[in-house]
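Now read the record:
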Amino acid sequence: MKASVFPYIALIAGAAVLAKEKSSNPDKVDQLFPEQNPSSTLGSPSASKPDVKQWEVYPIDLEHARPFPEPKPKTVTDMAGVKFKPHLHVSEGCFSFPAVNAAGKTNEGLTIEDGMADIKCKGPKYGSQTFGRGTWHRDRWAMMFAWHFPTYNRKYENYDWEHVVVWLRNPAGENQTLEAVSIWDDVQRVYTKAVPPAREFMAGSSVKVELGKDGLRRKLRLSRLDSQFQPQLIMWDQLPEKARHALDTVVWNQMPMPLSDSRFTLALENAWPFAPAPLPDDSA
């Protein structure tokens, strides 16, 4: 199944005007996209975005998929991402692969009919990618990290996204430690949570996770195993604009990418691992 463009922007008022703008001056498209603010809790697309047809994406194959080099961290968000990015071990199926390039072309994954699937899955030729995004959620700093996997053991799914959320008290504080981790269970469609994860599942400040077999599918879980390799980390606001908006608007197996605007905030709410704050006492 090929990636398709998420259709919600077709409902935005003014789309026809923007489509006309693109047809008369296609070089002006990038100017219509202001930088996203990674520290805000985004939940809905901006009304200034052009019609989705302007962001059609074209597939790239695994042989030519290259990760973005890990940028030098400049902000508190970047530095926290580098310090707390998870260590991933893959014990079943394909390794993670880059998902998108600077032109907004997305990885089309693998199908069960691909005769070279076993060879291609052994690891990306040019290295892999970890995507990260951080924001305040309630009274904690949340960072979501996601990986893209080509799959060939599912007849109708060419790719798979897995992700975890790590929780801190404050990314700018001294001697910060990881307070909790929420791991997306793609089999049960819920988050499994550890507050905090046991020391045996940690490598310094990073939690260790494993993508392993669970029945006929694969499942992400806490692990004692070290990662086979460390994908290059790139945070949401570090992505080239076309790459970020491709990830933001492409539908992967009928689901937006975990870090996308349309899914990110709701995912953090579902991943919340702490007890709810007590209600104020009106009798006081």
Summary: The two ends are 59 Å apart (CA to CA). Residues 80 and 174 are 11 Å apart (CA to CA). Residues 4-271 form one domain.
